[in-house]
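Model: Ready when you are.
Researcher: Fold this.
Model:
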Amino acid sequence: MQVEPRAVSELDVRTLQRRLAAFAAARDWERYHTPKNLASALSVEAAELVEIFQWLTPEESARVMERPGTAHRVADEVADVLAYLLQFCEVLGIDALAALSEKIDRNESRFPAPERHESTESGDRHSSE
């Protein structure tokens, strides 16, 4: 049965996790989906994403999505990374969006935005002033 593509607005994390779980269950792959194995697979897929950019200049990497063949490879690797991350979170009972929101909250406290001055002084964006 062919599934109609969904608009991005209709997708949600829980639905995607259920689809991934059903896919794995239909193939009897759950036994391999341990936290260790999923973390390893996630690392491998992230490395495959890095590989696409490995020898590109910063300028070339900024334009990677302009080439259809490369754009397709990047999108596929992003999908693989996200799939393994969602499966990892499912197995360990982590709400990925809640975890991200809490992490952003902590980072906003740990790294407050510098006050903006209306002067023309140039400064190092990493300075502690």
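Researcher: Now this one.
Model:
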Amino acid sequence: MTSADRPEGHGEGTIPQGLRERTPPGAVPPGAVPSGEELPFFVYGTLRPGEVNHDLFLRGRTAAEEPARLPDAALYQGPGYPYAVDRPGSGSAIAGELITPAPGAYGELLVALDLLEEYAGPGHPANIYDRTAREALRPDGTPVRAWVYLAAPPLAHHLARSGTPIPGGDWLRR
């Protein structure tokens, strides 16, 4: 979903009351960081530099942005934005960027991205994407643990059966 399609108030660094209420008891709420772990983000679609959501969500909130690849994943066309799907052992990879939040911006950025990606918490049935810690690779092959938003299981299953893959796994070269 593009930011223009979102209800007013989404993506502005606040958690709407309705979203807080949808978080199941015992689940990690959106924006929460398990074990206090602050990871960079691997972005592959509309959050990449030059794309619409980069300016809306990341401008002024990052300390570093660097090219990277997400191994064992495939990219599918969505309605104006892509979906990444886990593909262990496939040898496929997705092109993107590692985004390191600016000092003091991590919590605000995490909440904003969780809202943008419609992530309500681990395993929540309303999730469009699941936020997952995965290893991304820098151009020199160095692995970096990062958050990535992957299509939630029901959507991933649908995409595997009838989705349109993006050849080469690069949203910018589609």
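Researcher: Key takeaway?
Model: The helical segments are 17-22, 52-58, 106-116, 153-162.
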